[in-house]
Amino acid sequence: xxxxxxxxxxxxxxxxxxxxxxxxxxxxxxxxxxxxxxxxxxxxxxxxxxxxxxxxxxxxxxxxxxxxxx
Length: 70
What we know:
Layout: H1 3-18, H2 27-44, H3 49-62
Helix pairs in contact: 1-2, 1-3, 2-3
């Protein structure tokens, strides 16, 4: 998997997960949002959608742990 796809999925998941501040999202909520963003980025770029969803889901779960979507 290319570094571009990984970075795009992580940035997209972080950005979208950050939009959920008013609803106090759980790790599961952020994972689902991140997986959706990752799958979309992978699909648009012609890459493996499952891998993109996995990277995006991981980014969504971990974004609050590193302080990006608090």
